[in-house]
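Task: sequence design from structure.
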């Protein structure tokens, strides 16, 4: 009987340790998220499953072109995946021809799906100066993305960022590390 009790206790402690380690990993290191929609095409596709790195930004600040995950404040359990375009303290403006300027200089980029249509410049048709903890984010599919150009999303505060897209794990044929630049 003592042997059985020890085995049950040992197994129980093992399962408890596994649960605690899993909780810590999901809370502080990484989590899985699914891309819903086409706003990040051609970089990410609808139904792609990603692993989000939640640890990097505890050690360093987000950088321009990082693909980040953050909650949509108006709908619980809804997360957005977008690319950082503007960094704290910068001024962003989208011109009539769809070009993006940061602090008066043209942003050189190669991942955007298309030129931004004039009527989709949103609030960035006028200069937007970011606060010391704010980021301006956009989807790569510029004409099909709800991002910092619309007031419902707006500028993203540093403490809203959950993490950085790290790896695509599904579909298996497209499994790869996420390229941010």
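Answer:
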């Amino acid at each position: 009987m003592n042997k059985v009790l020890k085995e049950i206790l040992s197994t129980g402690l093992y399962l408890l340790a596994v649960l605690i380690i899993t909780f810590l990993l999901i809370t502080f290191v990484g989590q899985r998220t699914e891309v819903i929609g086409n706003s990040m095409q051609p970089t990410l596709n609808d139904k792609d499953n990603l692993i989000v790195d939640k640890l990097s930004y505890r050690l360093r600040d987000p950088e321009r072109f990082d693909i980040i995950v953050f909650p949509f404040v108006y709908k619980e359990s809804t997360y957005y995946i977008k690319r950082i375009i503007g960094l704290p303290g910068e001024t962003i403006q989208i011109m009539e021809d769809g070009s993006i300027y940061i602090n008066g200089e043209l942003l050189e980029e190669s991942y955007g799906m298309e030129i931004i249509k004039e009527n989709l410049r949103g609030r960035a048709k006028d200069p937007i100066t970011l606060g010391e903890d704010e980021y301006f984010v956009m989807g790569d599919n510029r004409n099909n993305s709800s991002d910092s150009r619309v007031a419902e999303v707006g500028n993203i505060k540093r403490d809203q960022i959950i993490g950085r897209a790290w790896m695509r794990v599904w579909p298996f044929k497209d499994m790869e590390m996420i390229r941010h630049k």
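The CA atoms of residues 82 and 139 lie 5 Å apart.
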